Amino acid sequence: MKNEKNFYVIIQGRVSPAVTQSWAVAHPLVNKFPNNKHQSCSTFEEARSILEQHGWTSLWFLEGPTDKDSLNLDLADANVTYAVANGRKIGVFSTYSTGAKPQTDHYSGACHKKLSSPTKAADFLQAFEEVQRRMTDLSLHTDPPAQHTTED
């Protein structure tokens, strides 16, 4: 049986150190972040160990829809759906080869996931959008460094 990767460890990203069970949450936090470091693992204990190996003793646990439902799906399963959160066209697709793949192939920062239902795909897209919105809000509300001036 394939070793299931249920956790994403963000060692260096926009929010770090962090652990999440959702690629929809992890992807925007590491995508195009300079020198990002992230890793997937099977258990929370393994995630903590990875962070400890990098010198972290505390972490953020970021909630989102879990990816567990997307594991071990048969490509022939009629319920399989593909969510494209970042690509040429964002949305839910019923096929990979003619739906999701053309939207993400050779697209910088593409993010897609195979899920077990259209509802799970919509949840994935909503989580991705929420993280993107929060990152934008943070960057808009971050004050620039104070300018020091001297008067004569």
From TrEMBL:
Ribonuclease H1 N-terminal domain span: 7-48, 82-124
Lineage: superkingdom: Eukaryota
Transmembrane feature ranges: none
Pfam families assigned to the protein according to its UniProt record, in alphabetical order: Cauli_VI
Protein name: Ribonuclease H1 N-terminal domain-containing protein
Organism: Xylaria flabelliformis
